[in-house]
Amino acid sequence: MEVKIFNTQDVQDFLRVASGLEQEGGNPRVKQIIHRVLSDLYKAIEDLNITSDEYWAGVAYLNQLGANQEAGLLSPGLGFDHYLDMRMDAEDAALGIENATPRTIEGPLYVAGAPESVGYARMDDGSDPNGHTLILHGTIFDADGKPLPNAKVEIWHANTKGFYSHFDPTGEQQAFNMRRSIITDENGQYRVRTILPAGYGCPPEGPTQQLLNQLGRHGNRPAHIHYFVSADGHRKLTTQINVAGDPYTYDDFAYATREGLVVDAVEHTDPEAIKANDVEGPFAEMVFDLKLTRLVDGVDNQVVDRPRLAV
Ligand code: DHB
Ligand code: FE
Fold it and tell me: How many angstroms separate the alpha carbon of residue 186 from the centre of ligand 1?
């Protein structure tokens, strides 16, 4: 039988009580958000006639998600991260700010505290038996389009199994493997030697993949490399590049692929190029320049503060 009680005074009063709106104390913003989200969920239960069994399956699911530390993985899978980017893009458009280098999601796997160097860094420790050398370099430009020395370029990516150091279930990787901060040189350039990453897949037995299965969706990301770029007088840029040609480039479960962020990995076998780049054999090269945007009235109006692992 279908009953409709959501719009009764009883239920509406109850929502205010449960959200603390009839109480002194607490945090008004939290009350406002909880009241709205709770109301939307109560209404969904009524509209969709969600059963008690379905509801309790959801509660058990949330417990599992937390126990597996996967809330930050499900979030991009359900598009929240990309939606927040779309909102920031729209805010920028309304302010007339052009992002020559598009932003895209941070993902849940950044770790603060990576080794820092000027101009160049070797990112991998040479231990990945399937590693194919990658030389990745480019120039950071300021808001006027001039090369920007002394910008901080933080780069992180996965190994050839798609695992990130500090989050690697095999325990094979050393701390900060394939995580570096490079300060741009006097020409605004950064350069790293590393290995080509592989695409990433959600833990196959985890709760994120379990829900994606119910949606008929896969949990794969294309091979990608993350960036934070920050510099005085500029807004911090959070983005990623995708290695062109990956089967998931335009089918990313986390919806991070954007026009302008797909970069060719050009293969070099020529002995001259091998020598000039100081590598041992054939290697791939990717070139990616990034352009920053100015602070807005002296502040970074879009900097994201979120809990991050720091080592
Ligand atoms: C996820 C993993 C990533 O490497 C990433 O960049 C974004 C999201 C994830 O597991 O959700
Ligand atoms: Fe990632």
Answer: 33
% of the chain with per-residue pLDDT over 90? 99
Same structural domain, 162 and 272: yes
Residue 69: its pLDDT value, please? 96
The alpha carbon torsion through 221, 222, 225, 226 (nearest 10 deg) reads: -30
b/e per residue 260-285 (b: at least 16 CB within 10 A): ebbbebeebeeeeebeeeeeeeebbb
Cβ < 5 A residues, ion ligand 2: 107
Q: What is the CATH number of the domain that holds 269?
A: 2.60.130.10
Q: Which atom of ligand 1 is nearest to the CA of 226?
A: 6
Same domain, 42 and 78: no
Give me the percent of the chain exceeding a pLDDT of 70.
100
pLDDT tens sequence across 114-153: 999 999 999 999 999 999 999 999 999 999 999 999 999 9
Binding region = 164, 200, 224-226
Residue 157, CB-side half-sphere exposure with 13 Å CA sphere:
29
CA 258 to chain centre: 13
- Would strands 200-201 and 220-221 be described as parallel, antiparallel, or unpaired? antiparallel
Cβ distance 6 to 43 under 8 Å? Answer: yes
Residues 11 and 96 in one domain: no
Instruction: Say whether both 252 and 292 belong to one domain.
Output: yes
Distance from chain centroid for Cα 278 = 32
User: In the structure encoding, which two tokens stand for residue 28, read together?
Assistant: 């008004």
Ligand 1 proximal residues by C-beta, below 6 Å: 73, 76-77, 107-109, 200, 202, 221, 254
Question: For 46-69, how does the pLDDT look when each residue is reduced to its tens digit (9 = 90+)?
Answer: 999 999 999 999 999 999 999 999
Alpha helices by DSSP H, listed for the chain, are: 9-18, 28-47, 52-67, 71-77, 80-95, 207-214, 271-276
**Eight-class DSSP state of 188:** S
pLDDT above 90 for 108: yes
Q: For the chain, what is the total number of helices (H) and then of strands (E)?
A: 7, 16
